[in-house]
Each structure stands twice: as structure tokens, then as C-alpha cells.
Amino acid sequence: MAFWEQKSLAELSTQEWESLCDGCGKCCLNKLIDDDTEELHYTNAACKLLDEQSCGCRHYDTRFQHVPQCTAITADNIAELTWLPDSCAYRRLHLGRGLAAWHPLISGSKDAMHQAGISVQGKVVNEERVRDIEDHIVLWPLKDLD
Ligand code: SF4
Ligand code: SF4
């Protein structure tokens, strides 16, 4: 059995935890909450540090110096981070769903994830180039696929 099937999220080593991130980049998109309905909307406006092609953070190790509001995802707070996309590996494991076939730990690379349209690759704009964030609401980050 793979380590993520043998252990709970709380039991993972730091290396195992980090390797679970599929690198989709969707958690780095700006999100809006409707004041009336409290509905969450994703936008295609990405954090200024997100690399739009690799879908990774340009300064991951020092990200909190550049973006203090960036969220560290941990076993302790995963239950509260309901804004994470359904496809997020941490959210999937927290909900007992397992990893998807396109996940890099299953498929061996990020290619299947990109081809399945799960990642942000080629779909986002840097938040610093956005004028009206409401014009950037999109549905594609909601996509999940087993
Ligand atoms: S600082 Fe890095 S990890 Fe945090 S939201 Fe921005 S791109 Fe994502
Ligand atoms: S949404 Fe989850 S799996 Fe995707 S990059 Fe963010 S933390 Fe990693």
C-alpha cells in the first residue's frame, strides 16, 4: 500500500505531506464570497507569485514574506479549509476519497493532470493585471475527475 493509504494525514512526514500536493495551483487563485448567499466563487486571477506554466509558487520557501495572507495547509486545519478545490489531494484524502488517477504520484508526472484540465496551466492571469475581479469569475476550478 502507498504511504497515503497506510497513514492518516496527521501521521505523514513533512516530505510525504509535501509530495501529496499535486501542484495544480488552484489554491493560489483569488476567490470571492457572495455577501448575500455566502457562495464561494473562484476567479482566474492568480496570486502574483504563481508561475502560470509550471503552476508552482515562484518563492515557495519564502512565500509568507512576499504574501503574508498565503495559507499553510496542515493536517490540523484541513477540515476548516472548505474553499480548497474538490480536486485538491489534501481535501480528497481528508474526505476519504483517495487520490485520482491523474495525480502525479499515481501517473508519474504532472502531464496527466494538465491534460485532464485539472491544473491552472494556461488559464490564469496575474492578479496584478486585474482591474475588476468580478469580471474574472470562472467555473473550471470546480472540475474534479477520478
Ligand atoms: S504565495 Fe505562493 S503558495 Fe501562496 S498563494 Fe501565492 S503562489 Fe500560492
Ligand atoms: S489545491 Fe491542493 S493539491 Fe492543488 S496545489 Fe493547492 S494544495 Fe496542492
What is the averaged pLDDT score? 97
* Cα-to-Cα separation, first versus last residue: 19 Å
Low-confidence regions: none
Strand content: 5-15%
Q: What ligands are attached or bound here?
A: iron/sulfur cluster
Structural class by secondary-structure content = alpha+beta
Family: Belongs to the UPF0260 family.
Protein name: UPF0260 protein HC757_02940
Describe the structure.
Belongs to the UPF0260 family. This is UPF0260 protein HC757_02940. A hairpin with a 6-residue loop joins strand 1 and strand 2 (40-46). The chain has helices at residues 3-6, 14-20, 63-66, 89-94, 104-107, 111-115; strands at 29-33, 40-46, 125-126, 137-138. With 146 residues, it is an alpha+beta fold. The protein has one domain (3-140). The chain is built from 6 helices and 4 strands, in the order H-H-E-E-H-H-H-H-E-E. Strands 1, 2, 3 and 4 form a 4-stranded mixed sheet that branches. The protein binds iron/sulfur cluster (2 copies). The site of one iron/sulfur cluster has 8 residues, from loops. One iron/sulfur cluster is lined by residues 21-27, 73, 84-85, 88-90.
Quick overview:
The protein has 146 residues and is α+β, with helices and mostly antiparallel strands.
Annotation keywords:
single chain; binds iron/sulfur cluster; 4 strands; globular; alpha+beta; 4-stranded mixed sheet; 146 residues
What are the SSEs and their pairings?
Layout: H1 3-6, H2 14-20, E1 29-33, E2 40-46, H3 63-66, H4 89-94, H5 104-107, H6 111-115, E3 125-126, E4 137-138
Parallel strand pairs: 2-3
Antiparallel strand pairs: 1-2, 2-4
Bound molecules: iron/sulfur cluster (2 copies).
One iron/sulfur cluster is lined by residues 21-27, 73, 84-85, 88-90.
